[in-house]
């Protein structure tokens, strides 16, 4: 082969090498596929159908917070208008036993008092006279007892008849009873015979709802200058719609904001023709905002069906006319259809869709809802 042939072959090989290098360089410089932007949630690649893939970092950026679903025994049945009032046996009038002049008042309307706490000091001529009578009765008792003892000794010695000793003993007993009675009356009214005054005290612990008394004024012994309502329990009187009569019965749980709970004690059996409602009465404990005369809303709950759970009301969302709750799963969240039994006190009771112990989304539901709608 001559030199010209060798040169031709060398030129062809060189062109092939250069073309290969150019192709490799061109392929390595080709633009890479765009990477997912930080903070975005890709479509459910590899996810179980119905799950939204969201990792921990993305969940924090979306402001997602969780709370557990808990098993419940009661489910909200209805919320009715009601008025708070003291029970009939929990209101006590404090009467001025004897007429007199008010020397000093120690509490005013609205004050909370304990049992036995002084309320007012009253000067009374009757108390002064009773104190003097008690002093005289004590003196007579001393004489009667001495006389009875002396005559009893004479009777034992046979000097006098036994009847005279018996009469003296009876007189001493009678005088002793007189002393005991006068002393009991003074104790009952917290009277001080020496000063001629007595003290009104609170018979129960509670709140002073009426205080029609002032220093320098008079009391006549037939009025009640103070009225005290027991502070440890109240009664709620509500209007039960006609459709619920027969469904609500004594023993059911009731609740008043902020989470004051009690029990139904009575349900009326007569429908008011004007309001088409019956009365429902419940007893509740004292608490913040529980004041006699206040209008409020009374939530009534009945036994919850088996498997019912309670979740914060903020966990419930609506997606395409579906009532749903977002439940935490491995690597994301599942959108569950749920059936609501009722809501009350910031809690929703679910009959299906969520099991006790599962973590539900209570904040960030709007972001998950938008993500679900974009799929």
TrEMBL record:
Q: Which Pfam families does the protein's record reference?
A: BSH_RND, CzcB_C
Task: Spell out the GO cellular component terms annotated for this protein, sorted alphabetically and separated by semicolons.
Answer: membrane; outer membrane-bounded periplasmic space
All copies of the Multidrug resistance protein MdtA-like barrel-sandwich hybrid domain together span 92-225
Among InterPro entries, the record links this protein to: CzcB_C, MdtA-like_BSH, MFP_Cation_Efflux, RND_pump_MFP
Q: Drop me one GO molecular function for this one.
A: transition metal ion binding
Q: Which residues form the CzcB-like C-terminal circularly permuted SH3-like domain?
A: 309-369
Entries under Gene3D superfamilies matching the protein:
2.40.30.170, 2.40.420.20, 2.40.50.100, Helix hairpin bin
Query: Which UniProt keywords are listed?
Result: Membrane, Transmembrane, Transmembrane helix, Transport
A Gene Ontology BP annotation from the UniProt entry: copper ion export
Membrane-crossing ranges are: 5-25
Family stated for the protein in its record = Belongs to the membrane fusion protein (MFP) (TC 8.A.1) family.
Q: What is this protein called?
A: Efflux RND transporter periplasmic adaptor subunit
What is the species of this protein? Sandaracinobacter neustonicus
């Amino acid at each position: 082969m001559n030199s010209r042939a060798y040169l031709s072959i060398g030129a062809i090989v060189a062109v092939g090498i250069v073309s290969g290098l150019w192709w490799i360089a061109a392929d390595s410089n080709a633009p890479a596929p765009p990477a997912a932007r930080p903070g975005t949630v890709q479509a459910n690649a590899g996810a179980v159908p119905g799950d939204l893939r969201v990792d921990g970092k993305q969940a924090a950026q979306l402001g997602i917070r969780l709370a557990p679903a808990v098993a419940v025994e009661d489910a909200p049945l209805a919320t009715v208008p009601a008025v708070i009032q003291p029970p009939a046996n929990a209101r006590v009038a404090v009467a001025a036993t004897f007429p007199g002049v008010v020397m000093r008042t120690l509490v005013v309307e609205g004050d909370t008092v304990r049992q036995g706490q002084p309320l007012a000091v009253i000067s009374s001529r009757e108390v002064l006279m009773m104190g003097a009578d008690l002093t005289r009765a004590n003196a007579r008792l001393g004489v009667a007892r001495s006389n009875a003892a002396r005559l009893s000794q004479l009777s034992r010695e046979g000097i006098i008849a036994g009847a005279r000793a018996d009469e003296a003993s009876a007189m001493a007993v009678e005088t002793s009873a007189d002393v005991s009675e006068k002393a009991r009356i003074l104790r009952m009214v917290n009277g001080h015979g020496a000063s001629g005054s007595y003290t009104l005290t609170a018979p129960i612990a509670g709140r002073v709802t009426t205080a029609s008394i002032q220093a320098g004024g008079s009391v006549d012994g037939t009025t009640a200058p103070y009225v005290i309502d027991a502070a440890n329990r109240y009664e709620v009187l509500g209007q039960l719609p006609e459709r619920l009569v027969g469904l609500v019965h004594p023993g059911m749980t009731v609740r008043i904001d902020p989470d004051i709970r009690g029990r139904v004690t009575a349900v009326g059996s007569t429908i008011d023709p004007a309001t088409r409602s019956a009365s429902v009465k419940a007893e509740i404990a004292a608490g913040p905002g529980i004041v006699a005369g206040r209008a409020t809303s009374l939530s009534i709950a009945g036994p919850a069906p088996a498997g019912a759970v309670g979740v914060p009301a903020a966990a419930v969302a609506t997606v395409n006319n579906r009532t749903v709750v977002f439940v935490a799963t491995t690597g994301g969240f599942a959108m569950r259809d749920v059936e609501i039994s009722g809501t009350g006190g910031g809690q929703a009771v679910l009959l299906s869709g969520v099991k006790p112990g599962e973590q539900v989304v209570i904040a960030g539901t709007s972001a998950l809802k938008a993500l679900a709608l974009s799929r």
